[in-house]
Amino acid sequence: MIRRGRVEGWLRLPISAFKPWADLNGVTFNGIKVGPLPGHEDRGSTVIAERALSDGEDPLMVVPRDLVLSLEGVQIHARSDRNLQELLDALGDFGRTARGSILVFLLMQATAACPSVSKGVAVRSPLTDYIKFLPEELLPTFWTEAELNLLEGTTLKPAIEAKLKSLNREYEQLRSASEDIEWCQKYWWDEDTGMLSFDDWLQVDAMYRSRALEFPGIGDCMVPCVDMANHASGEGTVALYETDGQGNAVLLLRDDKRLEAGDEITITYGDEKGACEMVFSYGFIEDSMTSARELFLDLEIPDDDPLKRAKKFISTSAPGFRLFDKADGISWESDYVWLSCVNEEDGLDFRVLQTTDGNRELKAFWKEEELRGLTQLKDALEADPMWEVFRLRATALVQDRVEAQARLLFGSDEGIRTMGLEGTTCRARPKALAMRLRTLEGSLLEKAWNSVESEKQELAETETVKRYLNPLSDSRYEEEDFS
After folding, report:
1. Class (C level, CATH) for 290-469
2. Which residues share a beta bridge with 249?
3. What integer is the mean pLDDT of 139-166?
4. Which helix (H) or strand (E) holds 148?
5. What CATH number is given for 15-259 in this structure?
């Protein structure tokens, strides 16, 4: 229905029809337009200044609140759309999330936009036509197997594999919840007349994932017109978005910004997002990015840890750690690492306690003091006389995992080069992104290994660590003469 489905899909609208659509639906533009940037037509449409602009201007764009596609917005649509409400109810908790409700709404609007679908399946809205302006996204969830193989050793490879599994579960949940709804059975699932495929679910996910913004007072949402603006970080960000007193979405020029006619108006999708997340969510890496910025490495507690099951049960954080590049060097953070590197002989304990309502609950303790959360564990360790020892363990654990990831990445380089020599068919854009991501992540891993190696050496020279590693060197034993 949308992409590589069983029907060709709806009529795509040219970007020249965008301004009339915006005018019709109450969107106001102030000195700007939407269209391809001259000389960069391959990048698609963006927001462009039509005249000279400076800070202090009225909002560059105002989008009425009823066009904002949020959880609240979908719920309002459902009040007048019986079919939408029935489907959201059938999906249970998933239908009550921003992501779930928006994806289902997009899917219904896409269905209603198909020429072969009779009227009445979904209540048409301005958004029915808006999705006809949206381009087909080339996120990694649409990459071929050969293209995904280029990601071997990067943190994006497991992220995409996990995402595809998650999307497949959602798709099967949608099928299970809706196959007994009459119109869903006819237009989505029937062997002869059904047109829905997994690719269609991938496409509405890509629409949402690549265009969702977190608006003040609204939360995660899609905002037509504002989401046409491209990304730039730091000083390259020209405009910012927020809501006005009436709940409308507005686009404002940043302080001290000056633009000439023809200049591009950019927003930030998140200055701190790493290269992996940029490719994952938006399908590009910013040209000015010289570092992967950050990456997440998963971590497994060793099987010989007697407290492994209890640690995994009590943990509420992701099983791994985040490496990040900052001005003064590479650093890492993780509650999970600290949980992994201490044990019962250090002072960690788990007890099953009875709650006030009669249930039983597993609780973590550090030297008889209950930990209200894993974030308290690091604080407790920092206050412990053995802090340098715990730091050394954590640093060694992080270094081992960084080294394993680097071996995986660099060890796959030869295979990647062989693929290129054999002429494996890969599209230019995925190939370029994959190779650049490999370079950026490889550089960050090398810097990280060197950084933690220096920290290990410094910790090894502390008196606390020396006494722990060589207890016989303690002064208490020096009086004995074994000559």
Report:
1. alpha beta
2. 63, 243
3. 96
4. helix 145-149
5. 3.90.1410.10
